[in-house]
Amino acid sequence: MKTKGFAKHYYLMLLPGFAWLAVFGIFPMFGIVLAFEHFSPVKGMFGSDWVGLENFRYMFSLNDTKSIFVNTIFIAIMKIIANLVVPLVFALLLNELRIVVMKKWVQTIVYLPHFLSWVILGGIVLDLFSLDGPANQILHVFGIDAINFFGKASLFPFLAVGTDVWKEFGFNMIIYLAALTGINPALYEAAGIDGASRMRRIWHVTLPGVRTTASLLAVLALGNVLNAGFDQIFNLYNPLVYSSGDIIDTWVYRTGLLNMQYELATAVGLLKSVVGFILIGISYFAAYKWTNYRIF
Amino acid sequence: MRHKKKSIAIAMATLALVVSACGNSNNNNSAASDAAPSGSSSSSASAAPADPFGKYADPVTLSVGQQVDPSDTTLPAGDTPDSNQYTRYIKDNLNIDVKDAFTASPTNYNQKVSLSISSNDLPDAMIVNAQQFREMSDNGQLEDLTDAFNQYASPELKRVLADSNKRAMDTVTVDGKIMALPQAEDAGVHEMWIRQDWLDKLGLQPPKTVDDLEKVADAFVNQDPDGNGKKDTIGIAAPDSSDASKLYANFLESANNLYGFDPVFAAFDAYPGYWVKDANGNPVYGSTTPETKQALGKLAEMYSKGLIDQQISVRQDSGEPVISGQTGIFFAPWWMGYGPLTDAVKQNPKADWQAYALPLDASGQFKPHLSAPAGQFLVVRKGYKNPEAVVKLENLLLRDESKFDLSKGSIGFYPVRLALGPSDESEFTVKALQDVLAGTKKPEDFSDKPEYKLLAGDLANIKKVKTEPYDKMDIQYWNPNADLGAWTRLYSLMVGVSPFMDLEGNGVSSLIYSQTPTMESRWVNLQKLEDEAFLKIIVGAAPLDSFDKFVSDWKQQGGDQITSEVAEAIK
Chain A residue with minimal CA distance to B517? Predict the structure, then answer.
């Protein structure tokens, strides 16, 4: 085989990806200068007046800044944990299921919500939890007074996490199922011969088998600590839950696009990116150290 | 080897797909960018005399940002937003080639315009809102229209804009120069819509005061007005989660607030969201006054009794329960026939929605807040060579709007259309309709009023949808099915406009309808503070006295500075 001709078309296939990256990933980076300017569209991105760190100073003087960072981190961390644990548990349960048809059916049904956008799901979720919706009807059966779920700031983060897990766990589960099929059946047989019960087999064979996958996903998720999910929150929140539900991205949207304060929105976005970059760096080294996984 | 061949084939196929897709989008892009800057190229030489309807000798190109409603299917096959009866009529009469630099649906139009402004990639002309107009004016992105307007505006256009809507014209005059053409707003009065049939069934009168309102709402909630044996009715509708629905209209978006509590606040002499004068004549933000606190206290009390929709601000569309017949009272502008009422009547032909200028305040008066004189502005890009072409477009529109056949493309497709009309258009129309119905005048008596462009049609249609007796407005004396389109408009006018025909002198205007410099950086956060604090008070998540904390926070986080800027601005 001639290695020379062999590699060429693979590089060609990379081209569209690089073009995408350049247009949507690299070129927009220059927009960062907005964070240090008093932006005027007529003077343009590079001609506007330079104000240094003024926008950042203003940002930290706002009472909102602290609360949106706290909300974002709180919601995001809960989502990361829940999105690791729930799919794993579900994958283990599904793996123990013996009826193959049933297993496939369940697997297909639970991952369906993943393919719907939050614009649609937001409407469904709001209806489910409305005062006369199914959730409150169930509570009513047990004699509990109706709860205005999405009007309570104390409940909002948990509803956001819960509905996000409901939407995504079926899809996240697929990775675990793949890892589970990768476990050598001989190990189960050996454990069976040694007299291990079902629970013992899960504990000593299955769980160690998916440990690498789980810890890798956990470490990689670190980079998302500042992404609490704009499309979800935006479609679910309202002023009553701002105190616990307003996140960086929704704040930037309102400030930047609706109120045309591009500089301030860019400054907050940049801060978010810098913190996110540091976390991704940490997760890269952590992934290498603990699970011996290297991206590059 | 075989595998390798296969992978090459797949690679080629993938590439082909990608390349063709790129090719397509490139073509589109270049077509769009051809259209955008072409305005200046072909036009400069054609110097027409100052004739408002003068046809250019050489074609003039005008690129516009156009709002296109995707649900509007009136265009005949072959016509596009770029080429339809209006663009052809303009081409034939004025020799102006109108091109769309961009089109956007109503929901995205504002964002599209904002992006266009911030990237300085402007069409020659477009419609913008007050904030965008101010922004463009500050940025120096606007062409001076003073000469174009003075020389080329037709006498009718001058009458409609400069005479009858003087206040609107003032808002577009910056340092003595006309920088845009304004669209005059109607007064934007919010009134009470109520189920008359429910009132009659329970033997109640329309609520005159806030205390009455509470009693009626209580009856609507607890006495089963819809007679289905279930306690499923809503006394008073509350704002929903959409942008068009707020607790009250504010000085930046001062008209067309749906399902808010504007009249309830006004009944306490409270004008939250507006800049008003305090007892000493100094400007004060209406949301920080004791009257507002009092009104909030009453609303909180009514909410806790279940008289106000419990899903305030969480519900996605408060129009839905109105349509399905669950809601008894809501507050909104006059045009509710265009809102939920057409569907409500389709659902239940007996749903008798009537409008009242109620509740009254302690002195027995109805004092609504009035909207900004102009809400939309037609602007021209700085450097466009033929600004008078835009004035001519509006001349032509005003003269000939009633001649077009709307079934061959609705009027929304007219390029950069301003809804032009005298400021008393709805009131004048209602008066004329009443006269014609009473028999004191004939439709022909109004034939000398061309600037009231829909009047002739309204007078022709009224007896089609209104049944006798002509002085009773209840739903059983209408025939919506005869012509639903005409009914929508005429019901809105006769029921919605009549209550406040004699009230305008009582209205309260905001001292200022635009932002001051500090507001530009602080307002989003102050607004958030306010929305959150007020909603929490109403639903009982915070005590009424947290209002005082809101006021001090508001002042400290920039409110004081903004107040002094407002004082400066109105000097």
Answer: A261
> How many Cβ atoms from other residues are within 10 Å of residue A28's Cβ?
9
Domain at B191-369+507-514, CATH from 3.90.550.10, 3.40.190.10, 3.40.50.720, 1.10.10.60: 3.40.190.10
Cα(B559)–Cα(B571) distance, integer angstroms:
19
Are A261 and B524 inside 8 Å of each other by CB?
yes
How long, in residues, is chain B?
A: 571
Cβ pair B218, B306 in contact under 8 A: no
CB-nearest to A151 from B139, B232, B314 is: B314
Query: What is the structure's pLDDT at B10?
Result: 47
Shortest Cα distance from B32 to chain A (angstroms)?
Answer: 19
In chain A, what are the domains? Answer: 71-238+247-291 (1.10.3720.10)
Rounded Cα distance, A287 and A218, in Å: 9
Chain B interface, mutation test: which of A27, A40, A66, A67, most B Cβ atoms within 10 Å? A40
Which residues of chain B have a CB within 8 Å of the CB of A262?
118
CB contact under 8 A, B18 and A16: yes
More confident residue, B506 or B233: B233
Look up the pTM and report it: 0.78
- Give the pLDDT confidence of B243-256 residue by residue, as tens digits: 778 999 999 888 88
Report how far residue B216's alpha carbon sits from residue B358's, in angstroms, rounded to the nearest whole number: 13
Query: Which superfamily does B34-186+374-413 belong to?
Result: Periplasmic binding protein-like II (3.40.190.10)
When comparing pLDDT for A97 and B491, which is higher? B491
For chains A and B, what is the number of CB pairs under 8 angstroms? 95
The 10 Å Cβ neighbour count of residue B78 is: 7
